[in-house]
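Hello Y.,

Per our agreement to keep a running log of every chain we model this quarter, I'm adding this entry. I've kept the format consistent with earlier entries: sequence first, then predicted structure.
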Amino acid sequence: MEVIITDTKNQAEEIVAKIIQSQVNAKNNSLLGLATGRTMESVYSQLINFHKANELSFSSTSTVNLDEYVGLAPTHDQSYRYYMNDKLFNHVDINLENTHLPNGLAEDIPAECKKYEDKINSLGGIDLQLLGIGTDGHIGFNEPGSSLASRTRIKTLTKETIEQNGPIFGANEDVPKHALTMGVGTIMDAHKVVLLATGESKAKIVADAVEGPITAWVTASILQMHPSTIIVLDQESAANLKNRDYYKWAYENKPDWQKHY
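Predicted structure for the entry above:
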């Protein structure tokens, strides 16, 4: 696990965008695993800017998203399909047929989850998986207590997750109680993982995930076992890390051949 600590939130977001840009430029037919939420909006905005400057093309790239709410149509303004189209896909040269999310309206949920796993495998596996982290340490919708070997499936959201998303929907009661999500095991199969966290509210859980014990109660902690994980933080989200001085020293003295972009 590599930990990169930047001075500002904007610098952290820029590094993540550049890592994705480097991945796609090196392998244009990459399969990107994408995430949603406010944390990712600046990253996607920068990718759009790279595209407009002719520095990035998604023409041969495919994507799979971490999750989707059960019961929301793709046209619903809080669905993750709507989010991805609005925040990224509609502004770059990606073929929408190459962008994939779980179907939250599927009548047969287990069959849909198997179909999604099969799609990922048929595309050669995820080259780079982008992640955020919840304040309880979840990645995707793998809430505390999720199996660390889990695959794509339906999950019941915690009250905390529903409360965090309530303002976005307008009220807690409008937030779906279930989502389809890649499993922890599915995420761990990605060739590379990049997790972005910023802000004081993430400091405690980042420390638990990066330096604490590996536990199903902080599903992000399993990333300690991934052979190629990059954690990108700002000063505030890194505040509780015991080894933060070493992480900064290591990054500043990285040999050129190890750099990501």
